[in-house]
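U., I forgot to send this yesterday:
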Amino acid sequence: MKTTIEIADDLFRRTKATAALRGESLKDFVAAALGFYLDRQSPESSTPSGWRSVFGSVQAKDVRQIDAIIDEEFERIDLHEWS
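Result:
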């Protein structure tokens, strides 16, 4: 399905650059990112994600602060160091 969305220029540039660094098309990257986001937001998700998939299932409300800290730390990763 085709659709048109409006996003901020900076977010678009970051998204396009990240997709290129990963060797993915913008279309595939955005679809995967949206799917990942929606899966994480679903309260009835039966498959634990992230660190919970390794250490067992817990209630999302009990670990929101931990997830926020982990997300912040991953934002600090320099993609060039991982190339």
